[in-house]
Design brief:
- It is built from 8 helices and 4 strands.
- The strands form 2 sheets. A two-stranded antiparallel sheet has the order 1-2. A two-stranded antiparallel sheet has the order 3-4.
Length: 147
């Protein structure tokens, strides 16, 4: 329980950027998931930077893609490829907070993409993933509306 409280506090308060997040999508500089191709996590099994020339606006953020095919796949099923909780920290969401994420913390669980604040938080999240996802799924509808 102390670990969860620490991670929630860390995810929720470590950065003023986290407190300032108003968008439903974590999009530093307007680019969702820092400009990485969301489809590539599923098809390539790794983080692939998107191209400025291949972008699509969805939910107030610019989504970038490495290939036209990936962009078309996303356009046809954005909720399938977009990260859960708008790309905010999955662990933080389970504690009721929007927190920024690092791209290298990505995980796919049950065909859904998740990110975490940093690698240490990801380690803690991984220990009880199912329960934390269940909790975050319940909390996200209220959290996404909050600044």
């Amino acid at each position: 329980m102390k670990t969860l409280l620490f991670a929630v506090l860390l995810c929720g308060f470590i950065s003023t950027a986290a407190q300032a997040q108003k968008s439903e999508i974590f999009a530093p500089s307007g680019k969702a998931i820092k400009g990485f191709d969301p489809v590539a996590f599923f098809t390539e099994g790794m983080a692939v930077k998107g191209q400025d020339s291949l972008s699509y606006d969805w939910k107030g953020a610019k989504w970038m893609f490495a290939t036209r095919k990936n962009m078309e796949q996303f356009k046809s099923e954005p909720t399938r490829f977009a990260p859960q909780y708008g790309g905010y920290c999955a662990y933080g969401t389970s504690g009721g907070y929007k927190a920024p994420t690092q791209t290298e913390t990505w995980t796919i669980v049950n065909d859904k993409l998740y990110f975490n604040y940093n690698k240490k938080v990801k380690e803690n999240w991984t220990k009880d993933q199912s329960a934390l996802i269940e909790k975050a799924d319940i909390l996200w509808p209220q959290i996404k509306e909050k600044p």
